[in-house]
Amino acid sequence: MVNTISRFEEYSAICGHIVPEIHSEAIRSKISKFKDAHDHYHILLKELEECIGNYRELHESLKKTAFPYVRKMVGEVRRKKHSKT
């Protein structure tokens, strides 16, 4: 789509008389909105990549520090349940 937009802009400069002015303005308006949306999309994508990276780091950190204690606590709870019976 980005290539199509670039071609439209390039070709319009060469032979702009082919596209009626009313259509050209509408197309240019949509192109401008598309470019803004495209830029916003890439900003959000970068933020998402950072969020995923942070999430994975926290997950690994918790896995290494908290999970061993959780396993010990599960064992302790099971042992206490068995000793009551």
Written description of the protein model:
The protein is 91% helix and 0% strand. With 85 residues, the protein is mainly alpha-helical. The model has no long low-confidence stretch (mean pLDDT 89).
What tags apply to this protein structure?
rod-shaped, single chain, 3 helices, mainly alpha, 85 residues
Q: What is the structure about, briefly put?
A:
The chain is an all-alpha fold and 85 residues long. It contains three helices and no strands.
H/E topology pattern? HHH
Radius of gyration: 29 Å
Overall pLDDT confidence: 89
Structural class: mainly alpha
Straight-line N-to-C gap = 69 Å
List segments where confidence is low: pLDDT < 50 over at least 5 consecutive residues: none
How is this fold's topology laid out?
Blueprint: H1 2-15, H2 21-65, H3 67-84
